[in-house]
Amino acid sequence: MGPLTDKFCIAGVGETKHMRPSNRTTHSMGVEAVKRACEDAGIRPQDIDGITSYNIGDSTAGTSIGSSLGMRLNYAVDIQGGGSSTEALIAHAVGLLTGGYCKNMVIFRSMNGRSGRRPGGQALSGPTPVTPISTYDNFNQLYGFLSPGQRFGMSCMRYLKDTGMDPNKLGHIAIAHRKHASLNPKAVMRTPITMDDYLASRWVSKPFRILDMCLETDVSAAIVIVPREQAYDLRQPPVYIMGGTARTMADNPLWNYSRDVIHYVAGNYGRQRLFGMSGVTQHDIDLTSSYDAFTFTTLIQLEAYGFAKPGEAGEYVASGMIDIDGRRPNNPSGGHLSEGYTHGISMVIENVRQLRHRADDTCPGWQQGRHTYDRAKGCRQVKKAEIAACLGWGTETMSSSCILRR
């Protein structure tokens, strides 16, 4: 295990509703999410002295949130980034708390991902400008790669060619995540789907159909991290941070399509660090969250982190393994495909609630950790939830991750 394993805990989580549209500012939503996370932990916002967030051309500054909530901050930094940010900022928090730079921290993400700047770069309406061309987009956009679906679709197509996987196996991910969302009162899309529904859904950018692609929502979410000694005196059962990776890069982090194998993603470079630091193996993991901007991003991460052998991730997801009653459920909230899109932070939040045994569903006793496991009556608590792996995604060449335990 690593020197910081189990030394720090996630003590509080909170979020706004998933909205389409919110008709609110990212500042307003950020204040609500941080306040909810503090209430969940049983800590006053004024007792938090470290804040950090991530954004891509949107959101609001942590100092602004801190001011609105009466925080006197010893640390405040906002980073640029998307889906690989939450787990990386958890690692930042552990290091900063260890060094004594602050005594506890809150991480938040606030985004109008539907009514403001959308994942494809365009504004839905109003004065929001289109996303400027920058970094590698200078080259991608010249060749028509205007959205993440087009860019990641290239890697998926190559994976399908190299492995011979039936592309319809992607549908098993969409179906499982929608099943989980049907049990989640917070989810945007709750109507179960079948393979026939998946195959009938329209093409967007091959090999992706509309059901392969994440939702667009306006939302904010937050996580409170404290030393384990402090966590014992707070409201919720502590969830321990065992280890992780922070924006691990592939061999060429910028030019993905010049690499020999473009679907050999960054998780392959980080998995030994992740499991070695945490002192566990893939066989010890009870549930996973895998960043599902697309069905393919979930599939390739499960393979990259060693849950499936190379070329066999399709069989892994088709076997029922990722179903809520399977051996290793994935994204039991419904994830970005069905609950709502939060650039990854909601997946960590869901794992925290699962590890507390307090998944917020329709079971009468969920707040006390008492679940029926009756899916027909709306229970989404995973039966065995002791250790969870959170697999973040930035691009094929960038990833972050962490392992949490009860």
Explain how this protein is built.
With 406 residues, this protein is of the alpha/beta class. It contains 13 helices and 11 strands. The mean pLDDT is 93.
DSSP strand tally = 11
Strand order within the widest sheet?
3-2-4-7-1-8-11-10-9
CATH fold-level name: Peroxisomal Thiolase, Chain A, domain 1
- What is the top-level CATH class? Alpha Beta
Features of this protein?
406 residues; alpha/beta; Peroxisomal Thiolase, Chain A, domain 1; two-stranded antiparallel ribbon; 13 helices; 11 strands
List the helices and strands and how they pair.
Elements: E1 8-15, H1 26-41, E2 50-55, H2 62-68, E3 75-80, H3 85-99, E4 105-112, H4 137-140, H5 148-163, H6 170-181, H7 195-200, E5 203-205, E6 208-209, E7 218-227, H8 228-231, E8 239-249, H9 267-278, E9 287-290, H10 295-304, H11 313-318, H12 335-338, H13 345-356, E10 387-391, E11 398-405
Parallel strand pairs: 2-3, 2-4, 9-10
Antiparallel strand pairs: 1-7, 1-8, 4-7, 5-6, 8-11, 10-11
Helix pairs in contact: 1-2, 6-10
